[in-house]
Amino acid sequence: MTRLVISKVQLDELALESKRESPNEAVALLFGHRNNEDWVVERVMPVRNSTPSPYAFSIAPEDIYQAYVWADKNGVELVGIFHSHPGKPYPSSVDVKYMRLNEVIWIIAGYGASEFRAYMLSGERILEVDIVVTP
Fold first, then answer.
1. SS3 breakdown of the chain: % helix, strand, coil, rounded to 5?
2. Which of 23, 71, 72, 82 has a CA-to-CA distance to 30 between 20 and 30 Å?
3. Does residue 25 have an active-site annotation?
């Protein structure tokens, strides 16, 4: 079973980013490595939502470029994409569309970052991924 392994500090950083960007969706790229079924987050990289909205996000192209340059230099890969929702932390139809293009774990914060859930797309099925929080 696939798991997203993330530290408490990193999860707190995502919660803070969600609250800071509220009511708009917050966005971050999660870099790290895959270890069998575990996708391990080593760095949370907040990025700008170039579509400031409570119901949508797009990542500024220059932020994507800089993030991938950093990842290449540091020997890590994209393991997840984070964003926040104003309500339930479930993928929207737009999220599913982009999950097809970005085959990583998607972590969503809902209800003011009080709840986090993670998902992957497997074929046409959305699978919930366990979040393992380390100290």
1. 25, 45, 30
2. 23
3. yes
Total length of the chain: 135
Query: Number of structural domains, the chain?
Result: 1
- What are the C-alpha distances in Å from 57 to residues 8, 54, 81, 113? 25, 8, 11, 16
Q: Which residue has the tokens 């699978």?
A: 127
36: DSSP letter: T
Alpha-carbon distance values, 28 to 46, 78, 91 (Å): 4, 11, 16
Summarised one tens digit per residue, pLDDT across range 74-119 is 999 999 999 999 999 999 999 999 999 999 999 999 988 889 999 9
Q: What is the pLDDT of residues 41-64, one digit of tens each?
A: 999 999 999 998 999 999 999 999
Is residue 54 within 8 A of residue 23, CB to CB? The reply is yes
| Domain at 129, CATH number | 3.40.140.10
What residues make up the domain containing 100? 3-134
